[in-house]
Design goal:
Length: 141
């Protein structure tokens, strides 16, 4: 079994949010040790989150230098429903490109068009680096 226990109330909520939430906050660490949060889109496969990035971004250099990262989900409007996952990330050259990742396109198809891409194939040209995040711990309330 993974780090998330879907048989508990909290674990079931975390699994649901990982499938349904649109934005997560990927937190890497810069060379000088400063946390670097970035809002990202992600797709959850039950064990890992897949995130796409534009090549040559600071988050990629940060992950290469220190793969220990966290993924935070937005809280509820009252500051509740907190989910924080910590673990490791790496570039995943075996991951499909954006336009060939059906769950990703189903989740973000409307958003891809909203931000100005003609479709997932155009987004795949720009967001060409896949990052695979594997959580080791989950906490929240």
């Amino acid at each position: 079994m993974g780090v998330i226990d879907p048989d508990t109330e909290f674990g079931a909520r975390v699994e649901r949010r990982l499938r349904e939430d649109v934005i997560g906050w990927l937190v890497t660490v810069s060379a000088d040790g400063t946390p670097q949060p970035n809002p990202v889109w992600f797709v959850w496969d039950g064990e890992t989150a897949l995130i796409y990035s534009i090549p040559d971004q600071a988050k990629l250099r940060n992950i290469e230098r220190n793969p220990q990262i966290s993924l935070h989900l937005d809280s509820g409007s009252g500051g509740d429903d907190i989910v924080i996952l910590t673990g490791s990330a790496a570039v995943d050259p075996a991951a499909p490109p954006v336009d060939q990742n059906r769950p990703y396109v189903e989740k973000y198809g409307d958003e891809i068009k909203r931000i100005g891409f003609a479709g997932a194939a155009k987004m795949a040209e720009k967001y060409a680096v896949a990052i695979r995040f594997t959580p080791r711990k989950v906490r929240g309330f």
